[in-house]
User: Fold this.
Amino acid sequence: MEDIKQLLGKRIRELRKKHGFTQESLAEQIGIEPRNLLKIENAQTFPRVQTLEKLMEILNCTPGELFNFGHLNDIELMRQKVIEQLKTDDELVKLVYKMIS
Assistant:
């Protein structure tokens, strides 16, 4: 399982892209060097509290939203959950089939 640095880095990257920021533009907005944002997104370092506060302000999110990692679970765990759900839900199978065909 991934640690909190990895999950937070993925979540920040996800929110940054959702809001249309490049690493450079978001780093400038929050007042850090782009290489430092890269290190945060790549789980090489954990952001300081002040950086987290600025990220939440610029990305317009709450602490709960920033630390919401549920959808970032390990891909194998996701695959198992999807397969289990597909085994019991015929309508979901039809919907997924339409999406992939």
Remarks:
- The chain has two domains: 4-68, 73-101.
- The mean pLDDT is 90.
- The longest helix spans residues 4-18.
- The chain has seven helices and no strands.
